[in-house]
Amino acid sequence: MILFKGKKYKFITTRDIYLDDIRAVFFPKDFREKYLYLGYIPFDDGSDYFKAIRPLILVMDAMAKPWWCPRCFLRLLHLFGSDNSIVRVRNKRLHDLKNRITGHILMFDHKTKWTDYDLRLSVSGPEEIADLADYIEGMFYHNGRRKDLLQRLEEQGVSKELYSKYDPVHKLEEILDLPF
Fold this sequence. Notes:
This protein is of the alpha+beta class.
């Protein structure tokens, strides 16, 4: 059921706002709907990918949401100010108000590139958030690379006495390069 009809003006189009969008503002049913005002939030599918990003989202929420402002108000501003989008602006005043309240803290993108364990996070906000995103990217790559090397060592039949699952990546790479 459409509550507010979207508008079209030349190249600019806003989307329709449905009853389900209003329900998501006041009664979010999952993690993504709860923190959607922070930008491009992944779905909770229980994957390693989501488990790596979840702490960053919770820190972003703690830094973006003031104690006096309910989260449903921020979701409402995001819906009517930006159409629940990171690129569209439906109402500039509401969009700017949400950005002023949250301190422009936003997640623009998250993806894996080249391999399953090469995570890329694009965030805006204070330096602490950028540092945390860099740390999560590094640890996600490091742990994924270690799992990949351990799997390759097991496939090649290398003796488990030469390595352990806690060895650093560079040591596992050296063992993998040894002739057998």
